[in-house]
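Aim 2, interim progress: modelling of the heme C-bound target.
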Amino acid sequence: MDLGIRLLAASALAAALATATAAAGEPSPTKAKVDFARDVRPILSDACFACHGFDEKERKAGLRLDTHEGAIAKLKSGDAAVVPGNLEESGLVFRVETDDEEMLMPPKKSGKTLTPAQVDVLKRWIAEGAPWSGHWAFEPVKKAEPPKPAEAARARGPVDSFLLARGAEALADGRAGRPAPPRHA
Ligand code: HEC
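Predicted structure of the complex, ligand included:
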């Protein structure tokens, strides 16, 4: 076999392997946990943030859905949009499912609608405890105290402290040595 063909064969094999791995890693739609940044936030961002987002002047009902605090906050109405783990108590669930056009979110006049699949994602997310993973770009800037890892003496600055602590955590739960899974927004 000449080198060119061998290289071709090798890259075809590599491509096939990559595809197989990707397929194996693909979450099955029924079992996979909802991922906030990947699945939930884009829905809220597209259908809700115009009226329940960062812009205080546009914010309706005092509800903001772009922060965890905002999403779980008790509102003037007495409801909270999101009650983690509790679909019945979550105002959001009622609002995206109701047949009452006056109550339905997003409001019809916004020109937005949610598909049944999107409603399902929101409900599963809340049922799973509404975890909020922040892509750093979405989180308000916070000053974090550098952790004090056991190997603190090795740290030459706060960034080292974070890295050492992360490493110690990884060792503790057996993740050490494996690359962190990619996190996409
Ligand atoms: C075009 C603006 C607009 C958009 C977009 C919008 N809302 Fe609303 N929302 C409102 C207004 C106005 C109210 C207050 C009036 C009312 O209660 O219906 C409200 C109220 C709510 C409430 C009740 C808050 C309370 O007082 O208890 C929830 C929950 C809610 N929205 C969730 C959502 C969700 C989830 C989305 C996206 C899927 C969304 N909204 C999109 C305008 C909007």
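Residues 143-180 form one domain. The chain has two domains: 36-138, 143-180.
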